[in-house]
Design goal:
Elements (H helix, E strand, L loop, with lengths): L9 E5 L2 H4 L31 H15 L3 E5 L2 H4 L9 H16 L3 E7 L5 H7 L6 H17 L5 E6 L2 H5 L15 H25 L4 E7 L3 E3 L4 H24 L4 H10 L9 H7 L5 E4 L4 E4 L26 E2 L3 E4 L15 H15 L3 E5 L17 H19 L4 E4 L21 E3 L11 E3 L1 H11 L5
Parallel strand pairs: 1-2, 1-12, 2-3, 3-4, 4-5, 5-7, 6-8, 7-11, 11-12
Antiparallel strand pairs: 8-10, 9-10, 13-14
Helix pairs in contact: 2-4, 6-8, 8-11, 9-10, 12-13
The site of 6-O-phosphono-beta-D-galactopyranose has 13 residues, from loops.
């Protein structure tokens, strides 16, 4: 039998600012990069999202009733500093105080992300955002203010959400200005600036928040060789270095993964490193790693003529749409895992992969881990009687919770589990068609939406899970 979860385990749930708040241009907030993305027709925008900005009290009451011990959310930089730097926006600053106070009254531990894809538009217009090294100093300015303001209310800080996404989906996620899309080095330079920003924020947390703990939130997946041929095994090792350790070695060893860096240099895309950068990496060490886990990957050795390609995105929710995954010439090609079922959006469902990943990362770096995203996107159906029967989501989460428990049984230190997402929110590619929440948000058609909150079956199930300490 598996050892039970510790009594103080933080059972939580997650969201991010632009995906739930709405109020994109209200009460002093100015636009962020996310607010101006040209979303495909029919996909909701961030203007209203789930209207959490106005309904946070109701939402925190629902969290309390659910029994949450932690809540992972992000601050909207452009709500606090509408122009990215300069004068703070008092109403925006107050909003997060109110939210944090409400959470505190409900006995819920906040886990706060500083940056979740939403660069203030002012900085994108001024110098193209993360492409310019000035972004590191501006992020530090924002971070220092935030830590002085909320440091006494927040112990757990997450720096940057999923910086690898920019590198792996460079044309797809609308995060790089168009004029740079053909320059492959830019993606690695942005990533380097994010590493510097991350390290600076870690240092600041250590300086300004007594007892504070800080880490990055990264999307990582275990990478299996497609077959047991030595060249596929080699390709899986190459992919591990480039897709995972290239990020994690910076957080925990203060250096770039050697194999990945040499390969990128040979490709002519390695980032420019200035004197002192690597020292900063080492000074800005992480206390833990936050993992966003949805699925696992498979790798094979690419054919000799293969070109560099980014990963595909399934936009429709019709299984089987994705046939292109990231390819690195002469190094690896990511392919579909023939042994795993997938979600409607072609994401492999693999709870065992989560256990593998947790054990592997903990063995490598020996630092505590937390899960800050994990969940199943689905076309949920609101029944006429106001219920949502999402047993598929319950199955998904139950098997992943068991994987976390198994990893902990074998010695991995996991602090917290925060499924994506607490409530339905603006999915990055599919708006409200692809839902993840325990709480359904009625977005209806434009003029029909009530924005009512409706508890899904998974809400009642997770309530039992938490109440029973993870035994259900
Ligand atoms: C992660 C992001 C989240 C969230 C999630 C689900 O990469 O950190 O912001 O959106 O993925 O992705 P999607 O909305 O595309 O289904």
């Amino acid at each position: 039998t598996l050892r039970p979860f510790p009594k103080d385990f933080l059972w939580g749930a997650a969201t991010s600012a632009y995906q739930v708040e709405g109020a994109a241009q209200l009460e002093g907030k100015k636009l962020s990069q996310q607010d101006v993305i040209n979303r495909r027709p029919g996909v909701a925008d961030a203007e209203v999202a789930s209207d959490h900005y106005h309904r946070y009290k109701e939402d925190v009451a629902l969290m309390k009733e659910l029994g949450l011990r932690s809540y992972r959310f992000s601050l909207a930089w452009a709500r606090i500093f509408p122009d990215g730097v300069g004068d703070p926006n008092p109403q925006g600053v107050q909003f997060y105080h109110h939210l944090l106070d409400e959470l505190q009254k409900a006995g819920i531990t906040p886990i706060v992300t500083l940056y979740h894809y939403d660069m203030p538009l002012a900085l994108v217009e001024k110098y193209d955002g993360w492409i310019d090294r000035q972004s590191v100093a501006d992020f530090a300015y924002y971070t220092e203010f935030v830590l002085r303001e909320y440091g006494s209310k927040v112990k757990y800080w997450l720096t940057i959400n999923e910086q690898s996404i920019i590198v792996q989906y460079w044309t797809k996620k609308n995060l790089i200005p168009e004029k740079y899309l053909d320059d492959p080095q830019v993606r690695y330079q942005i990533n380097h600036h994010m590493n510097l920003a991350h390290a600076t924020a870690c240092k600041l947390v250590h300086q300004l928040v007594p007892g504070g703990m800080v880490g990055a939130a990264i999307n990582t997946a275990p990478i299996y060789p497609l077959t047991s041929t030595p060249c596929d095994v080699m390709a899986a090792q190459n992919a591990l270095d480039v897709r995972n350790l290239f990020y994690l070695d910076v957080y925990f060893k203060g250096q770039y993964n050697k194999a990945a860096f040499i390969y990128l240099e040979e490709m002519g895309v390695a980032p420019k490193i200035e004197p002192g950068d690597l020292e900063l990496f080492r000074e800005g060490y992480s206390d833990f790693l936050a993992l966003n886990y949805y699925s696992s990957d498979c790798a094979k050795f690419p054919p000799p003529d293969a070109q560099r390609t980014e990963s595909g995105v399934n936009y429709t929710g019709k299984k089987g749409e994705i046939d292109s995954y990231e390819t690195m010439p002469d190094f690896f090609q990511i392919v579909r895992n023939p042994n795993c079922d997938t979600t409607d959006w072609d994401w492999a469902i693999d709870p065992t992969g989560l256990e593998c990943l947790l054990r592997d990362i903990y063995t490598r770096y020996g630092k505590p881990l937390m899960i800050t995203e994990n969940g199943l996107g689905f076309f949920d159906k609101l029944e006429d009687d106001g219920t949502v029967h999402d047993d598929y989501r319950i199955d998904y989460l139950r098997s992943h919770i068991r994987a976390v428990q198994r990893a902990m049984h074998y010695g991995v230190e996991v602090l917290s589990y925060n499924p994506w997402s607490f409530m339905d929110l603006l999915s990055t590619e599919n708006g409200y068609q692809k839902r993840y929440g325990f709480v359904y948000v009625d977005r209806g058609e434009e003029d029909l939406r009530t924005l009512d909150r409706i508890k899904k079956d998974s809400y009642y199930w997770y309530q039992q899970v938490i109440a029973s300490g993870g035994q259900k």
